[in-house]
Amino acid sequence: MTLHPPLWLDQRRTVRRHCLRLWPVALLPALVMIFAVWGCEKHKADNSANKQERVEVTVVTVKPADTPVSFEYVAQVQSSRQVNIQARVSGFLEERVYTEGTLVKAGQALFLMDRKPFQAQLDQAEAAFERSTAAFDVARKNLARVKPLAAAAALSQRELDDATGQFHTSGAAVAQAKAVVEQAKLNLSYTVIKSPVDGITSYALQQDGSYLNSQNSQLTTVAVTSPIYVNFSLSENDRLKIRNETEKGLLRGPKDNKYRAEIVLADGSIFSHTGQVTFANPMFNPQTGTFLVRITVNNPENWLRPNEFVRVRIQGATRPNAVLIPQRAVQQASRGHFVWVVGKGGKAEPRPVALGDAHANDWFINDGLKAGDRVVVDGALTLSPGAQVRVVSATKKTDSPEAGAP
User: Fold this and answer.
1) What residues does each domain of the chain span?
2) Three-state DSSP class for residue 146
3) CATH code for the domain defined by 115-190
4) pLDDT (tens digit, 9 = 90+) per residue, 78-95?
5) CATH of domain 55-65+323-404
6) Would the pTM of this model clear 0.90, i.e. be above it?
7) Alpha helices in 195-262, H assignment, sequence order
8) How far, in Å, CA of 119 to CA of 89, rounded?
9) In this structure, are residues 366 and 250 in contact, taking their beta carbons and an 8 Å threshold?
10) Closest CA to 112 of 209, 180, 251, 237
11) What region does 314 belong to: left with phi over 0, alpha with psi -120 to 50, or beta?
């Protein structure tokens, strides 16, 4: 007996075979759409890749030129002449006649001592001088009388010798008395203690009424403020560096070998007068490891004061044919510093460089670049060797929205 499938199962199988024959035709529009979209995306990706390969950068063209340079150091102001005001005689200090901390002129009185004892000594010395002068006059007249009588044999030779000796002794006494008078006058003049120089005074070390002697004779100090010294220390390393760069031709001093100095005050302002290097200590200080260098500068307005700290800029040196590039153009790798340059065909090339000193916002390049090289300044962080670049002006780069982004 043969079994036949139900009619509904046979109908399902017929529909399935019919669908299998029609599915390629139904899916054809969908496949076409998928391939079209994939092609567009690939085209967009290719265009984006081409655009990313050309990086916008700003460059500077290397132009070597003689560039003036300066060296800055911390310095301290020193008086060109500081005088200790001291009492020359012992006695009582009567009065201070100057205002502490003010400017005084040469010859101006600063202190007064009690004059009465010294005036009495002068009067006594003058009286002794008059007595000696009278005795000398008597001895001179006596000798004048004795000489003709001794010549006529009316007096003995001994009497002539005594008269001659008395005359010379009296003359010596007069000279001695005169010297005592001069010393008394000096001592009396020393009671008025004056400033020997123009300068600024310090505070008084002794008060009125004090007894002055050799143990406490110093009264104050007067410091000359114009001209004034500005001293700074040059380290051994800096000295050797300057000498080596000079020998290699990287640094050239002034023709007259006279360096100028610009004084920078504590608030950053520039002093109105420039100075010159007038002394360099040839001896090395083993305690500080430096050499002392002195600058002399006029200070007529007395702005600079002794012991004040300032900064000095030594000017006059030049770097011949120096290469300067902005500091932001220099990058650092494990092997040293390098920059990106635009080579042939507009391709980026890394170039190792030897850095020199800083100059404002630039670096001196001692080696690695030559005239005409185009160095990338902005946009170097996204570069890779061989990358295509497009040079744009610095103004356009700054105005772009990305320029302000960190």
Assistant:
1) 55-65+323-404, 70-78+227-320, 115-190
2) helix
3) 1.10.287.470
4) 999 999 999 999 999 999
5) 2.40.420.20
6) no
7) 236-247
8) 13
9) yes
10) 209
11) beta
